[in-house]
Amino acid sequence: MIRLEKRPQPSKAWSLATPLVAVLATMLAGGLLFAILGKDPVEAIRTIFWEPLFGEFAFYYRPQLLVKGAPLVLIAIGLSLGFKAGIWNIGAEGQYIMGALFGAGVGLAFYPLEAWYIFPLMVIAGGFGGWLWASIPAYLKVRFGTNEILVSLMLVYVAEQFLASMSLGLMKNPEGFGFPGSRNLQQYESAYNADLIAGTGMHWGVVAALIAVIFAYVLLNRHMTGYHIRLTGEAPRAAKFAGVNPSRLILFCLGTSGILAGLAGLFEVSGPSGQVSIDFNVGYGFTAIIVAFLGRLHPVGILLAGGLMALTYIGGDIAQANLQLPSSAIQVFQGMLLFFLLAFDLLTNFRLSFGKPEVA
Amino acid sequence: MDLSAINPVLLIASLMVAATPLLFAAIGELVVEKAGVLNLGVEGMMIIGAIAGFATAVETGSPLLGFVAAAGAGALLSVLFAILTQFAQANQVASGLSLTLFGLGLSALMGQSYVGVKPPQMEKLNIPVLSDLPVVGPILFGHDLMLYVAIALIAAVWAMIKFSRLGLVLRAVGENHDAAHALGYKVVRIRILAILFGGACAGLGGAYISLIRVPQWTEGMTAGIGWIALALVVFASWKPWRVLLGAYLFGGVTVVQLNLQAAGVAIPVEYLAMSPYLITILVLVILSADKSSAPAALGRNFHASR
Fold first, then answer.
1. Domain span at residue A171?
2. What pLDDT, in 10s, does the model give residues A171-212?
3. Which chain A residues in 189-218 lie under 8 Å from chain B, judged by CB atoms?
4. For residue B118, which of A63, A214, A350, B248 sits 20 to 30 Å off, Cα-Cα?
5. pLDDT at A336 exceeding the cut of 70
6. Which residue among A149, A335, A346 sits closest to B101, beta carbon to beta carbon?
7. How far apart are CA A231 and CA A155, in angstroms?
8. Per the structure, how many domains does chain B have?
9. Is A148 a member of any domain?
């Protein structure tokens, strides 16, 4: 008989190993899924994980890794702060949209003026938009005790409708021949978030993501606020006695994740995506939840997990083109990863013991 | 704008139809939460139910079989949640989220060949005389079978919780799992059964959207109804009849909003479409002051250790 025994302390080794085990298990289960869909599983897995990095056209795909990874890392870093403290912001998608709208709105308002200060202003507006949207659940939770999970999620749908209204109305390109969507910011030099070194995919969002990783690492390991976050997550009662102010923590965690998600949206809309359109958001806000968990809520882990998840996006695109693998298959694949991760996490906190239970 | 085009009788009848998916999903989740488990995967289980029910109905030509398949599919997906939270001791919030993300992906994959297909229609109840009555007829006697099943389910759950031994055990497990365990109740087994019931109900709710309310299959068609169902359980303070009240309220908002869109009110469509979500938030704010009725062990995992 197999029994579970709670470990006195979570196992460090398993904590590092579970993401790897989960990725391997996902590859196996994913291969099975692809086989059921009638695709060669080995070929499909190779296309997703190998082709973007070392394949024939890798020179084209490698920059994409940064482009797709940056928003994921940026959002996931913010989410991880809250998740650590048991504050669940799952509406990052909405904050991402609002950041993009605020930022792009500022940029479009200045059109066609060319000036150095436009892009910094857009960045500030983007962060502000995300912060504003995340502050709604934060404020409601602090003031009324409203569940932040449900409110932040409801606001995603509100943001999506707002995005539709903007791209069909106020922000619509007046020279766009009636097509929905704003002016293309890529053609507006002062607002364009271009590659810092052409052709590398290295835009300001990537820089921001790296800064966020360092910032989060310092915060969590060297700063009082970070200590309070960890304390609240691991021992809420002890945190209360130690004088941690839960309201301030909620406002801080949700606000920061909102700012980061808003920035991610702004960098995306002013760079790779280029214009405000009804469907410019592609669900990074939700995928970032997987990234945060896969990275063990640790800044460096999130950086690696963001890279891996970006890889599955790009590999998924290639598999779609080359093997006619449906795009939703990759979504299933990403969902499975979270399943396996949560399941194997058992081994971090529990020890499996075999044989009959001894009488105490 | 022409508000006189809105027929109040049809409005109430369609409100009941709009509320039924919410009813199914929320009453299932209510039982799950009564057992002390918070399953945030309702949206995922609903959408899986929506496509499983749709596909089965199209292939077999029987909407009823579709509903059976939907309940099965929802329950099947909830097994994953049960394994994660009851055996692997995973965090319930994270597990529920993973269920939703996975369900949305899987349903899109399963539904590829069903986009644009028309499902077989479910017959409306037609009781001679009664269904033909003015006003009362279309509101009370003119619906499909599943709508009445949903209401019956509310009554059944209410009676189960209030009067039966099973309901007592369910509540004991949800209020204090350690005490329930000490009394010899199988906490994990009861919770798993509750989770399965919740999954089946969510599946039915999803199938009601794809087979009757819309009726069509499109990716992500549940559009947050699973999440609203979660909010509804809070709104109802974990009481079955209040779920009915809440669902009709939300159904009413949705239907009025759609009718206003059709009548061409000066408010842009997008802002009208936001309204159900905004009202959900508003209601949550008003009702979140009182948390005393929440099951005490909600969201906490149980592990029998010595």
1. 20-341
2. 777 777 777 777 777 777 777 777 777 777 778 888 888 999
3. none
4. B248
5. yes
6. A335
7. 29
8. 1
9. yes
**Cis peptide bond upstream of A112, omega within 30:** yes
Residue-range definition of the domain harbouring residue B175? 3-287
Note which residues in 61-120 of chain A have CB less than 8 A from chain B.
88, 90
The pTM of the full predicted model, rounded to 2 decimals, is 0.88
Number of domains composing chain A? 1
Residue range B270-281, pLDDT digits in tens = 888 888 889 888
- Interface check for A322 against chain B (CB to CB < 8 A): the answer is no
Is any Cβ of chain B less than 8 angstroms from the Cβ of A171? no
Do A158 and B278 lie within an 8 Å CB cutoff?
A: yes
pLDDT digits (tens, 9 = 90+) for A262-279: 999 999 888 888 788 877
Is residue B279, in this structure, part of any structural domain at all? Answer: yes
- The pLDDT of B57-63, averaged and rounded, is 86
The nearest CA of chain A is from the CA of B46 a distance in Å of 16
CB spacing of B274 vs A161 below 8 angstroms: yes
CATH of the domain at B251: 1.10.3470
For residue B303, tell me if it sits in a domain.
Answer: no
Contact residues, chain A, for B88 at CB < 8 Å: 342-343, 345-346
In a domain, B293, yes or no: no
Whether the predicted interface score ipTM is above 0.95: no
pLDDT in tens, A102-126: 998 888 888 787 778 888 888 999 9
Q: What is the CATH number of the domain that holds A53?
A: 1.10.3470
Minimum-distance CB partner of B306 among A37, A339, A360:
A360
Q: Is residue A357 part of a domain?
A: no
Q: Is residue B295 part of a domain?
A: no
Residue A350 lies in a domain: no
**Chain A residue numbers touching B223 (CB-CB < 8 A):** 157
Residues of B in contact with A164 (CB under 8 A): 270
Give a yes or no: residue A333 inside a domain. yes
Residue B243 in this model has a pLDDT that exceeds 70: yes
